[in-house]
Design goal:
By secondary structure, the protein is of the alpha/beta class. It has one domain: Rossmann fold, CATH 3.40.50. The strands form 2 sheets. The protein has a 6-stranded mixed β-sheet with strand order 6-7-8-3-9-10, with helices on both faces. Helix 7 links the parallel strand 7 and strand 8. It is globular.
Length: 284
């Protein structure tokens, strides 16, 4: 009944960067992301939600998409938000990513309440702290892959001389350096999603959100995307929060599984890291 994915024809960063002229470029990915994770004291979560709810009106009816959810996520975790269609998992992801605001409750990221900051600060959070990957790849068809990946840097007013190196590094990280001059229509579905992942990484975020990143892919390409996400988590120390309705994928790749049903958090289970790593080695 309600739309769980961000609206509009343009990627989310089109609707944020133009509100922040002359702002400072975001931090570096490889070193700064690790520093941010290490800066968090062990007792303090990176993300903490307290009694978060999101309601929508549909005529006279009130739809509770997210209902009183409290959850803590620590730096460096790979958390899977699991649930059936309509469970509220994508709505909750959008709240954590700053794409939507809760009707009630608080969302603290590094101690700041996203529900209380103004729209400019929220846009800055999306640009500097967050990377997003969606089920639909959202690559602009008239641009080359390289231009698509560079676009967030241009909108963030990163110096021209720095952009080329960062784009090249992001594309190499997802094994697409040789495809940089191709347009999306010339790429396979798996390549397009890897390109979208490179675009999410190029601004060097601390938190990567992935909303059904394998939903439009076959099983082989879907597995490659998830292997890349695990590699990003382990090598860059990045916090990853992924929405999926596929429990086998969540069990294989995530460190924690949080299950939502009818907008409520019904379970939050830590995965045995050794068993996850063993399962991943079995796919190599």
């Amino acid at each position: 009944m309600f739309n769980e994915t961000p609206g509009g024809d343009q990627p989310y960063y089109y609707r944020s960067a133009h509100t922040m002229p002359n702002s400072q470029p975001p931090s570096r990915l490889s070193d700064q992301t690790m520093d941010h994770a290490q800066d968090q004291p062990p007792a303090e979560p990176l993300i903490q939600t307290k009694n978060v709810s999101r309601q929508y009106r549909l005529g006279e009816a009130v739809i509770s998409a997210v209902n009183d959810v409290s959850l803590e996520i620590r730096a460096g975790e790979f958390v899977a938000l699991l649930g059936s269609s309509g469970s509220g998992k994508s709505t909750f992801l959008n709240l954590l990513a700053g794409l939507d605001r809760p009707t009630s409750g608080a969302i603290h990221v590094r101690g700041r309440n996203l529900a209380a900051i103004d729209s400019v600060e929220l846009a800055r959070y999306r640009r500097d702290t967050v990377g997003m990957v969606f089920q639909s790849f959202n690559l602009l068809p008239r641009m080359t892959l390289e231009e698509n990946v560079e676009l967030p840097l241009r909108l963030a007013e990163v110096e021209r001389g720095e952009r080329a190196g960062r784009v090249a590094a992001a594309l190499e990280h997802v094994r697409l350096g040789a495809r940089r001059g191709h347009r999306p229509s010339e790429l396979s579905g798996g390549e397009q999603q890897r390109g979208a992942l490179a675009r999410a990484l190029v601004n060097r975020p601390a938190i990567l959100f992935a909303d059904e990143p394998t939903g439009n892919l076959d099983s082989v390409n879907g597995e490659q995307i998830l292997l890349l996400l695990r590699e990003i988590q382990s090598t860059l120390g990045m916090t990853i929060i992924m929405v999926t309705h596929e429990r086998p994928l969540a069990e294989r790749f995530a460190n924690r599984i949080a299950v939502l049903s009818d907008g409520r958090l019904v379970s939050d289970t830590a995965q045995n890291r050794d068993s996850v790593e063993t399962g991943l080695r079995g796919t190599a």
